[in-house]
Write a structure and sequence with these properties.
Elements: H1 3-16, E1 19-23, H2 30-45, E2 49-53, E3 72-73, E4 84-88, H3 97-106, E5 109-114, E6 125-128, H4 135-145, H5 152-165, H6 176-187, H7 192-200, H8 205-215, E7 219-221, E8 226-231, H9 233-239, H10 249-254, E9 261-266, E10 275-282, H11 289-295, E11 299-300, E12 304-310, H12 313-325
Parallel strand pairs: 1-2, 1-4, 2-3, 4-5, 5-6, 8-9
Antiparallel strand pairs: 7-8, 9-10, 10-12, 11-12
Helix pairs in contact: 1-4, 2-4, 2-5, 4-5, 5-6, 11-12
């Protein structure tokens, strides 16, 4: 089935549905949140009975709270069996969390809209386009096909998805389409200066303190190819930072001359120090960090991926170095 046929199938399924639950992945980033709020807002205004759902119990990232979290549920709705489940920006069913795995078997129908090349095609209908710069652009295509108006609020949420997933239009996925669609969203009412102030300014001092602690652990390994920093629960406690405050640290590592792979390793509070989460970025297009993440059961994009494992930060580093040695 071609991408256009899949898009049509998604639109027809939604047109036939009266009730929808729109979901994103656990620990959502800007693209996931932007897709969730943009799509959910548009469907609701279009007459659908719509529930927005962000799985998991980790607090939603403060960076995007200004988009509005008031009606984002953290648990699936009780009437899930009467709703179509529309999963956005989820590379696999596991990204929906424990409740999401159950929801896939309970929902009236399931739709998977995503741009990850390693997507596992877990839904009844899978609109997966790895050439799309981000999930927000796939949502924009869908809303247009449904004939739904792109209001300033919808446009702003989707613009956030494009801006954050392209690294402010710096990454390789900042294609001509990403710029063209961003321009269209600006024409639809996005206030660019306000978006950038909300996204990148006015941050708590705790975030800067956490960045300092992270950079103090910097290791440059593999003859200058690999940059690694590590964060512990104690670092969060000492700085008063939230887990989401580690976002953006990895960009400082990618900027180091000669670095091909950057890694931020952090211990989430829920893991009691026994679990490590690792974010990976490739600064060298020939190195696919999704392959590294796959070795630990994770996934992502060729240039941006992640995984979690039970063990120490040294265990994570050893895995990364082993995979790089096989490169």
């Amino acid at each position: 089935m071609s991408a256009s046929a899949e898009l049509t199938a998604v639109a027809r399924t939604l047109q036939a549905a009266k009730k929808v639950v729109v979901a994103c992945h656990e620990a959502p980033d800007g693209d996931a949140i932007g897709s969730l709020i943009g799509c959910g807002t548009a469907l609701r205004r279009g007459g659908w009975d719509t529930v927005l759902w962000a799985p998991g119990d980790t607090p939603l990232p403060a960076d995007y709270a200004w988009l509005g979290y008031d009606d984002v549920a953290r648990m699936p709705p009780a009437d899930l069996s009467e709703r179509v489940l529309l999963a956005l920006d989820c590379g696999s069913a596991e990204r929906l969390g424990v409740d999401g795995l159950a929801a896939l078997t309970t929902a009236d129908a399931t739709i998977n809209v995503d741009h990850h090349s390693d997507n596992t095609q877990f839904a009844n209908i899978n609109l997966v386009d790895a050439t799309a710069p981000c999930a927000s652009i796939l949502v924009l295509r869908l809303l247009r096909l449904l004939g739904l108006p792109i209001t300033p609020a919808v446009a702003t949420a989707l613009y956030v998805g494009i801006v954050t997933d392209t690294g402010r239009f710096q990454f390789a996925n900042a294609t001509a389409e990403s710029h063209t669609e961003a321009a269209a969203l600006i024409d639809a009412g996005v206030a660019v200066d306000e978006v950038f102030r909300n996204l990148y300014e006015g941050k708590p001092a705790a975030r800067i303190l956490l960045l300092g602690r992270a950079l103090s652990t910097l290791q440059v390994r593999q003859n200058g190819r690999l940059a690694v920093v590590c964060l512990t629960i104690a670092d969060l406690d000492a700085t008063g930072a939230q887990e989401s405050d580690s976002e953006g640290i990895i960009d400082h590592l990618r900027a180091i001359a000669g670095i091909e792979v950057a890694a931020v390793i952090r211990a989430p509070r829920s893991g009691a120090g026994l679990v490590q989460k690792c974010s990976l970025r490739s600064a060298q297009p020939s190195i696919n960090v999704a392959d590294i993440a796959h070795a630990a059961g994770g996934g992502g994009h060729p240039l941006a991926a992640g995984f979690a494992l039970t063990g120490t930060a040294d265990d994570v580093i050893a895995l990364i170095e082993q995979e790089l040695a096989c490169d």
